[in-house]
């Protein structure tokens, strides 16, 4: 099969690799659509030791089951593989499973390829009325759905219902859409890139600004740099909640004194539970997360250029979807 292989810092090769073979309980999926995630970019830039080269990246995917009793079924993929039996899994917090694996991270190759294998339990059927390009957004949307849910559950009952999202990429936009679906109406997205900010305002149904005014009960940091954590520390209202999704850099930024004196909660969030993933998929299918028409489609063979364009800040769309079935020039 063909795959887009990360071979070194800022280097991707579109080349032939062996077809994957499903293990017991797994199925083979022909990948139709696979999104470029921020974590893929971190790996591409050499900033993620968990994803050493050579490796097939990509974990935001949808496709069609090949073979077996579900042959031909259209599915979106929950890429997080957990044991199902440890205390975290039994408690419904399977994203904290001590033996969790995710495709695009050893030992599991990713979905920037013609085929990928997954446990059958990780697949959610996609209605015929929903395109697989949109279905591939279930994973990033679930990340933000999980974060939004945790943030709102941590709010005091008396808190106002204002939220700000730092970062207008796919995760930030998805967080805004998830909060909106959870009946938060006053939401601002902070996006410094003029082109991206204009796209969000014109096409995505959210209010995007270069900076925010006032204080917010819920602050979502979808970037994760010291500067954005410092911003989050200042934007959170007394008794508010900072929900941290971004993995831009490891340390710095939080104003611990202000957070302590104002009893501001900080929640680190990682991926999603299996229930969050299913709930997100259903919200997508029901139209509660909007039109989801803010992606750019490119052939998988053009993946190297797509990564370079994202790196250069040339892409207004929050998400690029790579499609193995489309042939590049």
TrEMBL record:
<dbReference type="InterPro" id="IPR011032">
    <property type="entry name" value="GroES-like_sf"/>
</dbReference>
<feature type="domain" description="Alcohol dehydrogenase-like C-terminal">
    <location>
        <begin position="170"/>
        <end position="283"/>
    </location>
</feature>
<feature type="domain" description="Alcohol dehydrogenase-like N-terminal">
    <location>
        <begin position="25"/>
        <end position="128"/>
    </location>
</feature>
<dbReference type="Pfam" id="PF00107">
    <property type="entry name" value="ADH_zinc_N"/>
</dbReference>
<dbReference type="InterPro" id="IPR050129">
    <property type="entry name" value="Zn_alcohol_dh"/>
</dbReference>
<protein>
    <submittedName>
        <fullName>Threonine dehydrogenase</fullName>
    </submittedName>
</protein>
<keyword id="KW-0560">Oxidoreductase</keyword>
<dbReference type="InterPro" id="IPR013154">
    <property type="entry name" value="ADH-like_N"/>
</dbReference>
<dbReference type="Pfam" id="PF08240">
    <property type="entry name" value="ADH_N"/>
</dbReference>
<dbReference type="GO" id="GO:0016491">
    <property type="term" value="F:oxidoreductase activity"/>
</dbReference>
<dbReference type="InterPro" id="IPR013149">
    <property type="entry name" value="ADH-like_C"/>
</dbReference>
<dbReference type="InterPro" id="IPR036291">
    <property type="entry name" value="NAD(P)-bd_dom_sf"/>
</dbReference>
């Amino acid at each position: 099969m063909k795959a887009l292989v990360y071979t070194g810092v800022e280097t991707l090769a579109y080349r032939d690799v062996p077809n994957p073979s499903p293990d017991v309980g797994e199925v083979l999926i022909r990948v139709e659509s696979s999104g470029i995630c921020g974590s893929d970019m971190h790996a591409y830039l050499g900033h993620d030791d968990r994803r050493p080269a050579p490796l097939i990246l990509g974990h935001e995917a949808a496709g069609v089951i090949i073979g077996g009793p579900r042959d031909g079924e259209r599915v979106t993929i929950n890429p997080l593989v957990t044991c199902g039996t440890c205390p975290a899994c039994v408690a419904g917090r399977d994203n904290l499973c001590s033996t969790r694996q995710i495709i695009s991270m050893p030992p599991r190759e990713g979905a920037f390829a013609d085929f990928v294998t997954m446990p059958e339990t990780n697949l959610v059927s996609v209605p015929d009325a929903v395109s697989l390009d949109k279905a591939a957004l279930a994973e990033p949307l679930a990340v933000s759905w999980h974060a939004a849910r945790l943030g709102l559950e941590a709010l005091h009952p008396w808190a106002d219902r204002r939220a700000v999202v730092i970062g207008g990429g796919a995760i930030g936009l998805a967080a805004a859409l998830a909060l909106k679906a959870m009946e938060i109406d006053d939401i601002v997205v902070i996006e410094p890139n003029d082109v991206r900010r204009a796209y969000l305002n014109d096409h995505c149904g959210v209010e995007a600004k270069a900076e925010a005014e006032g204080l917010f009960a819920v602050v979502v940091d979808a970037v994760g740099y010291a500067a954005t954590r410092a911003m989050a520390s200042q934007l959170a209202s007394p008794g508010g909640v900072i929900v941290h999704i971004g993995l831009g850099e490891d340390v710095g930024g939080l104003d611990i004194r202000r957070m302590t004196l104002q009893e501001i909660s900080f929640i680190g969030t990682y991926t999603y539970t299996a229930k969050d993933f299913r709930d997100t998929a259903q919200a997508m299918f029901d139209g509660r997360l909007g039109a989801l028409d803010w992606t750019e489609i490119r052939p998988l063979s053009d993946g190297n250029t797509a990564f370079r364009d994202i790196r250069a800040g040339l892409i207004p769309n929050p998400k690029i979807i790579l499609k193995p079935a489309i042939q590049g020039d």
